[in-house]
Amino acid sequence: xxxxxxxxxxxxxxxxxxxxxxxxxxxxxxxxxxxxxxxxxxxxxxxxxxxxxxxxxxxxxxxxxxxxxxxxxxxxxxxxxxxxxxxxxxxxxxxxxxxxxxxxxxxxxxxxxxxxxxxxxxxxxxxxxxxxxxxxxxxxxxxxxxxxxxxxxxxxxxxxxxxxxxxxxxxxxxxxxxxxxxxxxxxxxxxxxxxxxxxxxxxxxxxxxxxxxxxxxxxxxxxxxxxxxxxxxxxxxxxxxxxxxxxxxxxxxxxxxxxxxxxxxxxxxxxxxxxxxxxxxxxxxxxxxxxxxxxxxxxxxxxxxxxxxxxxxxxxxxxxxxxxxxxxxxxxxxxxxxxxxxxxxxxxxxxxxxxxxxxxxxxxxxxxxxxxxxxxxxxxxxxxxxxxxxxxxxxxxxxxxxxxxxxxxxxxxxxxxxxxxxxxxxxxxxxxxxx
Length: 435
Description:
Mean pLDDT: 92
CATH architecture of the largest domain: Alpha-Beta Complex
CATH superfamily of the largest domain: Spore Coat Polysaccharide Biosynthesis Protein SpsA, Chain A
CATH topology of the largest domain: Spore Coat Polysaccharide Biosynthesis Protein SpsA, Chain A
Low-confidence stretches: none
Strand content: 25-35%
Largest sheet: 9 strands, mixed
Number of domains: 2
Oligomer: single chain
Distance between the termini: 54 Å
Helix content: 10-25%
Shape: globular
Structural class: alpha/beta
CATH class of the largest domain: Alpha Beta
Number of helices: 12
């Protein structure tokens, strides 16, 4: 509940767990060779940098990351990005899915993943466990939700987001009483009569200081705070998932409260949501502000030169470090690290993820002798409404656009998802190709 005197919790009593084990099938082909939390974001970050930065900015520096699928690049990013000194007690550690003498299965869900790692988690001295998702874009002071959890004497607190009726049908919806205690949970409710019963009533909205007067519902954000002993009890079963299994049962047996979050939040679950969230960063007033230094987003420090612009026309774009951009036109686009854009090319509504390395002269000549373009975007190429994954080779005089094509399609050179063309990681589009 709102409180001007916010309870402050010792951050050393909080352990954070970030869920990073899902297959990320809805983000395919971006997840073909990497896990979903490792997908590049906003030119120089990765999705996992968001929850880790929220933890660090909240003073909570004991962080575990649970991984399972295509996790090599994620492990590399974590090891190269997050290093704490020996005296702070802080860490970001990977807990990968592993076989044991008692269990040889992969994670079956979020609750199963935490259960299988309890032996590691309980070696730490903590009072509260915060569970976060590895694929959401938001900025949250986690001290606030943990402090509220303590104030309410809650055993489990669920972060919730007010949403409208249309969004409510595709999310887990909670009903709370006037004190903020959760009394009902429904997963993706479709029945209009059921939706009516789940709506936030005026008195509860007033008590909890929820802004606005339209129909609102409280959707679970997949962010939880557990008391240590409660976590152990609730996982003493074979239930696989928090949202589908653990939470609905806990509401009737434990003191479960809702924390209401009213900031920007986006679940980066589909190609369309990923595309829109990235392009929004290029707007004059983006909904998520990477320039907010009161709570910065951290990532791997790189020693790259500043970007070089050789006469290009650039409008509403993000240009990352180490790029060389020749006389081209770039509008409403995001240009990732080490990107090379050739003369005469036009990029409009494009996410160009950039490159992991600069190509040597010997490599360029070798590929050219085989008729393969050099890394980056070639000359006189037009790209619209597309995602160019890392290390792609786009030739000269190429056209890439979803115009006139199906919403979803697979092709040897590209994929189309949600009406967006995707050139996969290390993909090659030969000179003079029209997509």
